[in-house]
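Please discuss these two lines.
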Amino acid sequence: MNIRQYKETDFTRLASIYDAARPHEFYQEEGDFIFTPWSKDEYMMAVFSQSKVYVYEEEDILGFCGFTGDRINWLFVDSINRGEGVGQKLLAYVLCQLEGSARLSVWKSNERAKGLYLKSGFRITSEFSLNFQGKERLMNTMVYP
């Protein structure tokens, strides 16, 4: 296991992980979704360019996590490696980098992600609605510790 800072040469692999994982965020939501490839999403690319990003690497990159200030923006793991502790290790590493508090937003229906965050010491502090592809959907704000 090796967790290291992101390099530009990692982008194609990170985009592949993100694009494949994105639909899984909505596994409990009804509807057909259209996802813009990460590299074509101007807003996401702007956030990414401002984020400090770390990758989890063995022979290949298995996942990544990034943050801006105290806000965790990204935590994605290759679907083949979910359930192997990659996300938990990345999150623990990033929390050490943040040296204190952290916050994030997660779809309320994404129980798998919320379970990881709750197990890692986050707590749900609020709920808000966001229009996503023409429908209001609920999100949770979570904070650590």
Observations:
- Residues 86-98 form the longest helix (13 residues).
- The CA atoms of residues 1 and 58 lie 5 Å apart.
- Strands lie at 2-5, 52-57, 61-68, 71-77, 102-107, 123-132, 135-144.
- The mean pLDDT is 94.
